[in-house]
Design a protein that fits this description.
2 copies of one chain form a homodimer. Chain A is an alpha/beta fold and 488 residues long. The first copy, chain A, is built from 13 helices and 29 strands. Chain A has 2 domains: 377 residues, 3-Layer(aba) Sandwich (Rossmann fold), CATH 3.40.50; 98 residues, ANL, C-terminal domain (GMP Synthetase, Chain A, domain 3), CATH 3.30.300. Chains A, B: InterPro entries: AMP-bd_C, AMP-bd_C_sf, AMP-binding_CS, AMP-dep_synth/lig_dom, ANL_N_sf, MenE.
Chain lengths: 488, 488
C-alpha cells in the first residue's frame, strides 16, 4: 500500500474554483487563486531566506491575510509549522522555540520585544515585501501521515508539550465536521478565534478543503461579529461561551437571519443560562467537545437536542469513537470515568516525547484525562476537564504550569492553583502559596514575579498566603480542596 | 502507523442519527436504526447459513430494501461482496462466480433458472425470513485498505476482470463527491440505477455516510422519477443520457422545484441536444466521468460551465489528480492522449490478476485507456472511451467480449464488433463475421447462438456476413473501420 496523498490543498482549490472568495476581512477580499499566488510568492521568498523542506518554522502573528499566506506558503515548501500563542510571555515563547527545534521564526514588528531572544533567524512579516524570490519544488501532494503543525499544550505535569497534528488529522477533522454540519457552497465561516489555536486554524483549512469563504476579524468585537452575520452572509461561527454571550448581549433583541445556521460552541462547558438564551433567541448553537490533540471538535450536539440533552457535548463525529474508562474497564452507561477517543483526527503524538505520547495514546485511543459519562442513548456529558484544567476566555490554563513558576521563586515553598468562576472570563486562576518565612513577600511581589514569565491570562487574579495546603496521604496536592481555604 | 479504521458505517449512522429516514421506496420508508437492525438480523442468519469473515459472497438481486440489507449485513460479518449484473447470461454469471471464488450466492427466486448451475451454496432471499440466527462478532470498524466489493468489467482483452473496491475507495469517493456537490441535511438521492453498478451502489454508501435518504425505485420509470423530484423532495438523482432524456420528455414543459439541485449525469458522453435541453429547462446537470475502477465519478462539471465548456466532463474531485499521457510523456494543454487518474478512490486492483493490475495501475496512477485532453483551464474533455468501448443504455459493452463468443462458434472464423448510434440506447453493438464456408450459417443462427451466452444488451443488433475484415499490417482488427463496410 502506498501512503495516501491528497493534492496540495490550496493549489488544488485554486485550480478547481479559482474565482470563489477565499478570505474576507473587514476591508478586503481575495479569491482562492489570489491566495494561492500570494502563498506561492511568499514560499519563494522564504526559500530565498533559507527555509527548506522538513525545516521547523514558527509563526507568532495576529490573525491576518498575511498570516494565512505564510501558513500555506510553509506547506508549499514542506515545512513543519509551530503556531505560537501571541499571549505567551517572552520566556514561554523562548521555551517553545527551543523545544520545537525551530529553525526560523516568522513574526511581526509589534512582537519585536517579545521575541528579542530569537534574533538569529527572525523574519518580520513587514520585511517580506522587499525579499527576493528563489524557486523551489512545490509540494504537489500532502501525505496523510506527515506532520503539518505543532501546537503547545500543557498537561497535569505543567511541562508544555508540542502536539503534532498531521495533514491527515486536519483533513479528517474537516471531513468529520462536514459530515455532521453539512456543507453548503455559499457557507461563510467567521473566524474570531486566533489561528494559533486549533479552533481558528481549522477554519482556514475547512475554507480551502470545502471551497468556502473564511471571514476573518483580527480580534473579537461583538458588534462586528454580529454585523458579519446580519449583513455579510456569515453562516457559521466558531465561538466560546464568553464571546457568544457578548454577541447575544450586543444583539439586543434582534434575531439572526435564517442563513445563519451554526454557532459552534467550544472551549469548555457552556453555562446553562447561555444555552437557554440561545433557545430564546433561536440561535442554532452546536455544543462541541474537542482539544488540540484531536485537531478540533470530536463530539458535537445538534440544536435539536439543546433542551432534551442540556449539558451534553453530543455524539461523536462520524469517523470518531468514544468510550468511558474506569480503572481500565469500559464504564456502563451513565457511569463516570475517563473520556477516551479514537479516530483519524487523533494526534500522531507529542513532539520528541515518546513517553508522554505512549502514555496518552494507546492503540490509537487518546486518554483525554477529562472525566465524563455517556448516557443510555450515547450522548457524552463532560463533567470535568482534566480534573484541574481552568478555561479562561476559551484559553486553557493549567494549574501545574503556574505552580511551577510560583515554586521557582526562592521564597515560595508550596503553591497550589485552582480556578474560580468569573463573570467575564468564565473562570480565572487563583493561587495559594506558603512562604519560606512570614512576611518575606506580599501578594503584589508575587504577581510582579509572574509577569513576563506567564501569559497575562495565566497570572493568578488573587494570591492567598496560607500556612498549609490540602494534601492527601501521599502528600499529593488536592487542588479541588484549595477553594475551601477561602470559603471557610 | 496503524491502518486507518472508520467505525462500521451503518452501525455508526444508526447510532448518530437513528430516526432519520435511510431508505424510501414507493411504498415504504425505514430509518437508519431499522436498517441497522434488519442488517444485523440478516447477518446473524447468514452466519447461521455458514457465512463467515473473509468469505466471498455474491449477490444477484434487483434493487430492493432487502438487497440493501444484505449488502450491509455482509459488511457486518466482514465478507467480500461480489455484485453481479442481473442482465448477464447464465454462462457469464457462472464464469464470474468461479473467477471470484464465491462461497455463497444470494439471489432471488426469479433468478432460479439463471443461477441453476450454482446450486451448492445458493440462498434465495425469499427463504431468509425462516432462517434461524446465530451470533457472530460484528465488525466494529472498517479498515480503509480492506476489499469491500468486487464488480466485473471487461477491457480490451474481452476477459472480464473483477475490480476490487476497498472500503477506502468507497469512502473517499463519497467524500470527494460531497466536497464537490456539497452536503445538505435534507438531501434525498434518487437511485434509478442498479446497485450492482458503482453508480447505484455509491448512492447507498453516500446515504449512510452522509446521513441522507436514498429514494429507490426497482427499475427506471420516467414518470415515477419525476414524481420523486416534484412531490417527494428528491434533491439529487444519478442518471445516464437515456434516462435523463426520457425524464425531460415526460416532464412535458413543467419545471423542477428549486430543491432539486443536481442531476448527476454519467455513463458516457452526453449528447449536445440533451445538454441544451437541460439549459432550456433549467435542470442543474452535472456531467461526470468515472468508472468501476475509480469507485464512481472522479471528474465533474458544474452547471455554471455547462455552456462555456460544453462537452467537457469538468475538473477532478478534490482528492483526485488527472493527467494526459502521450507515449509516456505528459501532454500539453489541448493535446490528446490517454487519460490517467490518481487518487484514494482508485481501485486497489483486479482480483487475482496481478499482471492486469500492474499494467493498469502504476504508482497509484490508473491508465484508463480512455482518450481525451485537458484545456488551458484544466477542464477534461473525453474524446473516446477505451477506443472501442460501446455504451448502451449506460451499460458498458466490450467488443472483444462479444467477438470471443462469436469466435467460439465452430463455423465463424473471424469476428469484429463495433457500436452504432441508436435513438433509444445511445449505442448498440453490431457484428461483422466471416464464415468458414459460405451459407453454412444465417444471421438468425448467430443471434440464437449468442443467447444465453451473452447478456441481452450485448447481443449484436445486426449481424453482417462479410468476406474480409479490416486489419492493419500486423493483422490487428481495426474496429473503427468496420463501420465503413456497411457505409460503402
Amino acid at each position: 500500500m502506498t501512503t495516501t496523498e491528497i493534492p496540495n490543498w490550496l493549489e488544488q482549490r485554486a485550480f478547481l474554483t479559482p474565482d470563489r472568495i477565499a478570505i474576507k476581512t473587514e476591508t478586503k477580499e481575495i479569491t482562492f487563486l489570489q491566495l494561492h499566488n500570494h502563498a506561492l510568492k511568499k514560499a519563494n521568498q522564504l526559500t530565498y531566506a533559507g527555509v527548506k523542506k522538513n525545516d521547523v518554522v514558527a509563526i507568532l502573528m495576529k490573525n491576518s491575510i498575511e498570516m494565512i499566506e505564510v501558513i500555506h506558503a510553509l506547506k508549499y515548501i514542506g515545512v513543519i509549522t509551530v503556531l505560537l500563542n501571541t499571549k505567551l510571555s517572552n520566556q514561554e515563547i523562548e521555551w517553545q522555540l527551543i523545544d520545537s527545534k525551530t529553525n526560523m521564526l516568522i513574526t511581526e514588528a509589534s512582537f519585536h520585544e517579545k521575541t528579542i531572544h530569537f534574533d538569529k533567524n527572525r523574519l518580520f512579516i513587514e520585511d517580506m515585501p522587499s525579499l527576493p524570490e528563489k524557486a523551489f519544488e512545490v509540494e504537489k501532494t500532502f501525505s496523510i501521515e506527515k506532520t503539518d503543525t505543532i501546537m503547545y499544550t500543557s498537561g497535569t505535569t505543567g511541562q508544555p508539550k508540542g502536539v503534532m497534528q498531521s495533514y491527515g488529522n486536519h483533513w479528517w477533522s474537516a471531513i468529520g465536521s462536514s459530515l455532521n454540519l453539512g456543507l453548503h457552497q455559499d457557507d461563510r465561516w467567521l473566524a474570531i478565534v486566533p489561528f494559533f489555536h486549533i479552533s481558528g486554524l481549522s477554519i482556514l483549512y475547512k475554507s480551502v478543503i470545502y471551497g468556502i469563504t473564511a471571514v476573518i476579524h483580527e480580534g473579537f468585537d461583538a458588534k462586528k461579529a454580529n454585523d458579519a452575520i446580519m449583513k455579510y452572509g456569515v453562516t457559521i461561527v466558531s465561538v466560546v461561551s464568553v464571546t457568544l454571550t457578548r454577541m447575544i448581549e450586543e444583539l439586543a433583541g434582534r434575531t439572526y437571519p435564517k442563513s445563519f445556521r451554526c454557532a459552534l460552541l467550544g472551549g469548555g462547558p457552556a453555562p446553562k443560562p447561555l444555552l437557554e438564551a440561545c433557545i430564546e433567541h433561536q440561535i442554532p448553537v452546536f455544543q462541541t467537545y474537542g482539544m488540540t490533540e484531536t485537531a478540533s471538535q470530536v463530539v458535537t450536539l445538534s440544536p435539536e437536542y439543546s433542551i432534551s440533552k442540556l449539558g451534553s457535548a453530543g455524539k461523536p463525529l462520524f469517523p470518531v469513537q468514544i468510550k468511558i474508562e474506569r480503572d481500565g474497564i469500559i464504564a456502563e452507561p451513565n457511569e463516570s470515568g475517563e473520556i477516551v477517543v479514537k479516530g483519524p483526527n487523533v494526534s500522531i503524538g507529542y513532539f520528541n516525547r515518546p513517553d508522554a505520547t505512549s502514555e496518552a495514546i494507546k492503540d490509537g485511543w487518546l486518554y483525554t484525562g477529562d472525566i465524563g459519562y455517556v448516557d443510555d442513548e450515547g450522548f457524552l456529558f463532560v463533567q470535568d476537564r482534566r480534573s484541574d484544567l481552568i478555561i479562561s476566555g476559551g484559553e486553557n490554563v493549567y494549574p501545574a504550569e503556574i505552580e511551577a513558576i510560583l515554586l521557582s521563586h526562592p521564597h515560595i515553598t508550596e503553591a497550589g492553583v485552582t480556578g474560580v468562576e468569573d463573570k467575564q472570563w468564565g473562570q480565572v486562576p487563583i493561587a495559594f502559596i506558603k512562604l519560606a518565612e512570614e512576611g518575606i513577600l506580599n501578594t503584589d511581589d508575587v504577581i510582579y514575579f509572574c509577569e513576563g514569565k506567564l501569559a497575562r491570562y495565566k497570572i493568578p487574579k488573587s494570591i492567598y498566603i496560607v500556612d498549609t495546603l490540602p494534601r492527601n496521604a501521599s502528600n499529593k496536592l488536592l487542588r479541588r480542596k484549595l477553594i475551601e481555604l477561602i470559603e471557610g
